């Protein structure tokens, strides 16, 4: 496929960390990893293998030792830290296992924050639509502590979509919610990405989640470095 058809294109990526006992640990050595526009990919792998590290690199929260990371045609490794922050806000959505909502703000304010970082001004209509889409129109003015855990995760999903990202990164988004909410969360993310043609990479430990995806990649298959904490 051509560059234009690829939302994510990684080449010859390496990432090492200092080890507490001295020396450096190579966590990632990925010759090639690509996600096409609108494609949905589940990433599975052993604990400590480097899945979260890979998501952080793609989000520009970490920088690699070497290699190339292109997201929607932009080479992240050429951007400054500020440039990466700006690019992330406008182009990448991130759903965390632990939601990361701001406790002092209501549901709708949390969703709007996903836009302020991206475009400077907020679109109240879209924030409302997103809360409606995740089934929380009647909870718009509740703070996170006044919401159930599953509802908090749905607010976090609405926030991640607020800036109209091209790529959504999800790190175990169903790990902390009950099985019924997990199904809802998964459906919601997948449907929202399909509707807005957002490419998506979801890290999961759950085979139940992974088997819902057409494409399931094992980190061990794309990563020549092999690290495990088990
Ligand atoms: N800042 C850091 N400094 C040193 N080592 C680190 C750092 N961050 C991660 N590592 C190491 O990198 C490896 C990969 O960690 P990472 O969190 O990416 O794994 P993971 O596949 O997401 O694991 P899990 O499935 O358990 O969440 C681990 O061995 C970890 O100890």
Identify the notable features of this structure and list them briefly:
four-stranded antiparallel sheet, 8 helices, binds adenosine-5'-triphosphate, alpha/beta, 230 residues, 9 strands, five-stranded parallel sheet, globular
List the helices and strands and how they pair.
Elements lengths: L5 E13 L5 E13 L3 E5 L6 H8 L7 E6 L2 E2 L5 H11 E4 L11 H13 L4 H10 L15 H14 L4 E5 L7 H18 L2 E5 L3 H4 L4 E4 H4 L8
Parallel strand pairs: 3-8, 3-9, 6-7, 7-8
Antiparallel strand pairs: 1-2, 1-4, 4-5
Helix pairs in contact: 2-3, 3-4, 3-5, 4-5, 5-6
Bound molecules: adenosine-5'-triphosphate.
Account of the 3D structure:
The chain is α/β, with parallel strands linked by helices. Helix content is 36%, strand content 25%. The protein is built from eight helices and nine strands. The protein has helices at 51-58, 81-91, 107-119, 124-133, 149-162, 179-196, 207-210, 219-222; strands at residues 6-18, 24-36, 40-44, 66-71, 74-75, 92-95, 167-171, 199-203, 215-218. The strands form two sheets. Strands 6-7-8-3-9 form a five-stranded parallel sheet, with helices on both faces. A hairpin with a 5-residue loop joins strand 1 (6-18) and strand 2 (24-36). It is globular and about 50 Å long. The termini are far apart. The mean pLDDT is 91. Bound molecules: adenosine-5'-triphosphate (ATP). Residues 17, 27, 45, 47-53, 227, 229 line the site of adenosine-5'-triphosphate.
């Amino acid at each position: 496929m051509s560059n234009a058809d690829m939302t994510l294109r990684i080449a010859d990526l390496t990432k090492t960390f200092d080890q507490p006992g001295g020396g450096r640990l190579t966590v990632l050595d990925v010759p090639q990893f690509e996600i096409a526009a609108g494609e949905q990919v589940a990433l599975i792998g052993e604990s400590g293998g480097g899945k979260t590290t890979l998501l952080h690199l793609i989000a520009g929260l970490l920088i690699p030792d070497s290699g190339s990371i292109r997201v929607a045609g932009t080479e992240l490794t050429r951007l400054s830290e500020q440039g990466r922050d700006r690019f992330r806000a406008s182009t990448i959505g991130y759903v965390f296992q632990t939601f990361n909502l701001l406790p002092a703000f209501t549901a709708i304010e949390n969703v709007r924050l996903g836009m302020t970082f991206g475009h400077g001004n907020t679109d109240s209509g879209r924030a409302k639509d997103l809360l409606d889409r995740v089934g929380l129109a009647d909870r718009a003015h509740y703070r996170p502590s006044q919401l159930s855990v599953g509802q908090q995760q749905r607010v976090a999903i609405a926030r991640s979509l607020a800036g109209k990202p091209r790529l959504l990164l999800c790190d175990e988004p169903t790990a902390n919610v009950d099985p019924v909410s997990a199904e809802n969360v998964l459906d919601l993310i997948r449907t929202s990405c399909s509707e807005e043609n957002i490419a998506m990479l979801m890290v999961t430990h759950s085979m139940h989640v992974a088997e819902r995806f057409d494409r399931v990649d094992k980190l061990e298959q794309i990563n020549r470095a092999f690290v495990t904490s088990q």
